[in-house]
Here is the input.
Amino acid sequence: MEVVILPGSRQVGVLAADAIEALLRRKPHAVLGLATGASPLPIYDELARRYVEGRIDFSQARGFGLDEYVGLEEGHPQSYREVIRREFADRVNIAAENVHSPDGAAADIPAACDAYEEAINTAGGVDLQLLGVGTDGHIGFNEPGSSLASRTRIKTLIEQTRRDNARFFKSVRDVPHHAITQGLGTILDARHVILVATGAQKAQSVRDLVEGPVAAICPASVLQLHPHVTTIVDEAAASSLRLADYYRHTYDNKPKWQGL
Ligand code: F6R
Here is the structure.
């Protein structure tokens, strides 16, 4: 796993956007895996800026959301489908019909999860998956204890996640108890994974995922098994890493041709 430590969230967003721009130049019809939450917002801001400048073209790109709450009414501003539309899709030239999210309102949730896996496969798989990480080490909504081989399915949110996400709702009581999430096995199928984390509240999960044992107690640690993961963090989120100096040295001396 490559670990890149940058001064702040703006720089994190710029570097992740560089990788997406490079991918779309190489493969205009690339499939992007789209995360929500606060962490990827600087990436979406940067992509929107580059689109306005005419530097990046999403006209053939496809996108798949990572997860979705179960039980929010259609169009709820905090449904992840809406967040992706508002923060990303409406600000660039990706076709609305090419942006997919799990159906949190499906009458048959297991069938909707299977259909979502099928849709990702039919699209040719995810080329670049963006991820944030929870303070409990979750990726997507794969909470601690998730099967490391899991596929898209319903999960019950841990109270810590509901409390963390209460900032997006009127109160913690409004945060759903369930979500549909791509599984850890689904995420591992992406060709390249970029995980971004900023702020001191993420320092422990960043340390656990990068340097801890691979264990379901920190679901993000499964990324150690993936051949191409780039973890981009700010100084605060990197503050507990034991090998921080080595990661800095490696990145500073990286051959240019390697890219991300
Ligand atoms: C969002 C998602 C979550 C978040 C995580 C961190 O689609 O799947 O795993 O990435 O909860 O959230 P923030 O970035 O708000 O701290």
About this structure: Strands lie at 2-6, 31-34, 62-65, 67-69, 99-100, 128-131, 153-156, 178-181, 192-197, 229-234. Residues 35-39, 66-67, 80, 132-134, 138-141 surround fructose -6-phosphate (CB under 6 Å). The chain has one domain: 2-254.
